[in-house]
Amino acid sequence: MFIPLAAARTSIEVNPWMILPFGILLFLIAAGPLFFEKWWHHNYPKVAVGLGVITACYYLFVLHNGGRLLHVAHEYVSFIALIGSLFVVAGGIHITVKGESRPFLNVVFLFIGAVIANFIGTTGASMLMIRPWIRMNRYRITSFHIVFFIFIVSNVGGCLTPIGDPPLFLGFLKGVPFLWVLEHCWIAWLIAVTLLLAIFYIFDSINFRKPPVEVTAGMTASETWRFEGLHNIVFIAIIVLAVLGNKILPPLVPDFLMIAAAAASFFTTSKSVHAANDFNFEPIKEVAWIFVGIFATMVPALDYLELHSAELGLRTPLHFYWATGILSAFLDNAPTYLTFLAAALGEQGLSINTPDHIRQFIETNNHFLVAISLGAVFFGAITYIGNGPNFMVKNISQQLGVRTPSFFNYLLRYALPVLIPVYALIAMLFFSRWRIF
Fold first, then answer.
1. Is the pTM of this model over 0.85?
2. Dihedrals φ, ψ of 150, to 5°?
3. Which of 94, 197, 251, 298 has the fewest CB atoms within 10 Å, i.e. the most exposed one?
4. pLDDT, tens digit, for every residue of 130-156?
5. In a domain? residue 4
6. Structural domain total, the chain
């Protein structure tokens, strides 16, 4: 149960109907690419900005609370600066792989991807590693290779730092200490990654035995591993240092450093590397437009939850783990994380917009934040729409001629039978009455 804390609320009462633009946007993000893809592709910026303007006008002209919007705008700039800079820098590194990969080497590759995701984000790691992953398995590439890449590199792997996954970075911006996630989530991360790698190894071992011997024999003889654009590691280091300095540097300075590092990376990387990676700005442009709407429209939802969170009936870490996870699977996991963090804080009379309240909450109820963090990051892998890199990996794979599962095939054939048992075990070990961690 929660440990009561005494604190004043900082949110003001909002009309619950003002949560509707947030719900509409999340529905369109989920349904648009599936049911009216052409219309959505041409109109998503207008939709996101239009719904955001409705919320902005409400706060400016009805609540007369422009300061709340300025605070959100600053968080948006920091969010996009990090995601965008890592996207650009990762696009400047090209990996040429050596021939065909065996199951054990595939496992090592995915584990490395899971670790790297915590330094360059799941988006950056996915951009960097999906093409080498496809090339090294090109003689026997199947749907499950793409699916497990999404599971491990694009989602679960990025659970150890705020850089790793967008929900955790939003928590960091709200006041969660940088190393808190690593300290409290590493055991769950290790268990989940190990189990998924073990399941993948079984799948891949069966797949590896299928091709004729003449196909696999000698396929590595004339090829070598090669890395291009390694100078971009310096720019990655600058971005990480900028994130670490977020709490001590003047406002917007860390964001400027990240943007400057991205610009330097782009202009110092050869065109041949960008061409080899098929690099373009379309994926990050879509993220930037969509999150303009998300950051604006989620404000009423967060403020409302701080005052009415008790009505949700969530009382234990187990409740928050599954509730955060289920919504993260079918909505974007970043706003879902903030929604349930606001609800957990609201139960205590605390505000998500006050860093001191965040720290006060963590000191006595850190198990709730662990549940929300794992739910948001892990369950983002359940569907293509749970986390930004998922669709990006799917699209790149299709461009390279790899067959990928449909939305419902991905969900029913892979995500539910593979991920839910793993996540249920995590729930039992960490949040149930039988928990041992």
1. no
2. -65, -45
3. 251
4. 988 998 888 889 999 999 999 999 999
5. no
6. 1
